Amino acid sequence: HAHRWKSRRMSAIGSGYDLSASIFSNDGRVFQVEYATKAVDNSNTAIAIRCADGIVFATEKPVLSPLMISKSFRKTFATSQFTGIMCVGLGSDCRAVASQTRKEAASYKTFYRDEVPVNVLADRLALHLNQFTHYSAYRPLGVCSMLAGFDEDLQQPRLFMIEPSGSFYGYRGCAAGKGRTPARTQIEKLDLDHITCREAVIEAAKILHTIRDESQTREYELELSWICPASEHHHRLVPEDLRDEAEAAGKRAVDERDM
Predict the structure, then answer these.
(1) Is the predicted pLDDT of residue 203 greater than 70, yes or no?
(2) Which is the most buried residue in 153, 218, 243, 248, by most CB within 10 A?
């Protein structure tokens, strides 16, 4: 009886079972993967929306210092000619994942002489992340990745989200970070079958501004990017004029909420 009680207690708090990502607890949990997911959940909110004509990425970026150059710190990255990725979680892990995704895309193009389909790239990245859950010498990467691109064969945009465990699913809209739950609720209210990328940029800014926790006093800015006909189906930051329009719309939405 004492042994079973001790075993249940160890499983509940992770003691002994969280020393390695290669150890299962007696109730089937891998605590290192859960800790990596927690790192993502504590990060700034990010959302991705699959629109009628493309994909929109939007995320918060904390302004750590008034001396910091904002463009030197990115959360969204181009990964191939027609794909892009947005990473949420630990900053250094995010850059590592973006770099690996580019390597996978380049490897596919070198071997097949063609651009990598976004679903194949998502599968390769998921397998890479899953490897970090197999060996005691590694820790899982604290990153949730939203990978999107234009599928030339299907002639439509596609969006995938890859978890720290290596699991991945296709989405019409997804969110990660501190405000993921209210963000998903707001995304579900959008007409995703007909909304355009330009409209989605405005809506994404409204969502991120209105769901932000008022207790968070640190300055922040939005990073907005897209893959759509306006960007020739390449991943690019949205134009400055549209970004300013989206920021203004977001701030107006906050003012209307507080009235």
Answers:
(1) yes
(2) 243
